[in-house]
């Protein structure tokens, strides 16, 4: 293998740069040239490429976002568009493609190999932790730490004013961020897409906590379950006092990646290149039981990652 390409696609996630750095440096050390594709699939179609060498990825590991930038490229769902992408890659002598991104991006990669025979390796990068067959995706840990930090600050003001705070966090289809953040900040309750919300029980729990003497109250809501405004509306007339709403929004995507994400990204980046080098592809790098293992792309993408319900039980048990 003489030349590969790497891109970041979909929603950006902290740690993507560490993955790009690992891909580039490990490839260069193995005499493989690396083309950086800027702006995901849209940049691929526009031939928005940069040659990357060892030095070009210096000092990027600690940066949030992605230096290759990212995009959503709706036309990539069309087969003709993917055919065009494959011919562009062939024209540039690219023999393998590494795609760092979420479920959508990995679908694009899977189709590129299935239909157009472009050897691809995926690296899961998304803050939602909604990709199956891997314990964690790159960016989840950093996002979680950002959320925990924010909730901790809200708890300070919630205690001072004896208020209830409804905090909306990311998680369109997965309640992972809300559950773990709720668990480790001692939130009163979590509202997640996996479990239908019972406002009556939620209101009663908050009232009980107040009777017990607790002066702050935090409810963590995953955006895919309900909006913080809806939860607040349902709760206020049941608990009889005002709530405050905080929507954490895009700050959850930013920030310097944690040590965990840098390490995960570095390990996955090296493993991805190693796979292509050995002539293997059509896999996603996954973290399973502490090891980086390859899992077949079609198997990953036909599954929906389920939330570990033990975490939900633990949250309820301890609050
Ligand atoms: P995140 O989980 O952070 O949002 P993502 O990778 O899932 O990241 P999407 O917007 O779903 O983000 O997908 C990114 C890009 O991948 C899309 O803009 C499109 O170019 C491509 N893509 C998504 N779904 C498909 C699909 N079914 N077939 C081909 N390409 C796809």
From TrEMBL:
EC numbers on record: 2.7.1.11
Record keywords, A-Z: Allosteric enzyme, ATP-binding, Cytoplasm, Glycolysis, Kinase, Magnesium, Metal-binding, Nucleotide-binding, Transferase
Gene giving rise to this polypeptide: pfkA
Binding annotation for ADP: 21-25, 155, 186-188, 212, 214-216
Assigned protein family: Belongs to the phosphofructokinase type A (PFKA) family. ATP-dependent PFK group I subfamily. Prokaryotic clade 'B1' sub-subfamily.
Binding site for ATP: 11, 72-73, 102-105
Pathway noted in the entry: Carbohydrate degradation; glycolysis; D-glyceraldehyde 3-phosphate and glycerone phosphate from D-glucose: step 3/4
HAMAP family: Phosphofructokinase_I_B1
Protein name: ATP-dependent 6-phosphofructokinase
Highest taxon in the source lineage: Bacteria
Function (record text): Catalyzes the phosphorylation of D-fructose 6-phosphate to fructose 1,6-bisphosphate by ATP, the first committing step of glycolysis.
Positions annotated to bind substrate: 126-128, 163, 170-172, 223, 244, 250-253
Active site: 128
A family per Pfam: PFK
């Amino acid at each position: 293998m003489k030349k590969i390409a790497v891109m970041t696609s979909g929603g950006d996630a902290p740690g993507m740069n560490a993955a790009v750095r690992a891909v580039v440096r490990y490839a260069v050390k193995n005499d493989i040239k690396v083309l950086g594709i800027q702006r995901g699939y849209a940049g691929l179609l526009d031939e928005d490429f940069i040659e990357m060498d060892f030095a070009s990825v210096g000092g990027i590991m600690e940066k949030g976002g992605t230096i290759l930038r990212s995009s959503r490229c709706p036309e990539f769902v069309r087969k003709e568009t993917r055919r065009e992408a494959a011919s562009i890659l062939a024209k540039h002598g690219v023999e393998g493609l590494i795609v760092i991104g979420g479920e959508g991006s990995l679908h694009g990669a899977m189709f590129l190999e299935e239909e157009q025979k472009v050897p691809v390796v995926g690296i899961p990068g998304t803050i939602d932790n909604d990709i199956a067959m891997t314990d964690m995706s790159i960016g989840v840990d950093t996002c979680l730490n950002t959320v925990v930090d924010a909730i901790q600050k809200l708890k300070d003001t919630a205690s001072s004013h004896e208020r209830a705070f409804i905090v909306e966090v990311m998680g369109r289809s997965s309640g992972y961020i809300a559950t773990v953040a709720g668990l480790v900040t001692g939130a009163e309750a979590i509202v997640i897409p996996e479990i239908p919300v019972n406002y009556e029980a939620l209101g009663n729990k908050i009232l009980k906590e107040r009777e017990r003497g607790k002066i702050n109250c935090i409810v963590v809501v995953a955006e895919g379950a309900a909006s913080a405004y809806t939860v607040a509306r349902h709760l206020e007339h049941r608990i009889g006092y005002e709530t405050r709403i905080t929507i954490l929004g895009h700050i959850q995507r930013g920030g310097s990646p944690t040590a965990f994400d840098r390490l995960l990204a570095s390990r996955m980046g090296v493993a991805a290149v190693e796979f292509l080098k050995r002539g293997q592809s059509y896999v996603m790098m996954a973290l399973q039981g502490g090891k980086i293992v390859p899992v077949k792309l079609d198997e990953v993408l036909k599954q929906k990652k389920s939330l570990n319900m033990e975490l939900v039980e633990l949250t309820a048990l301890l609050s």
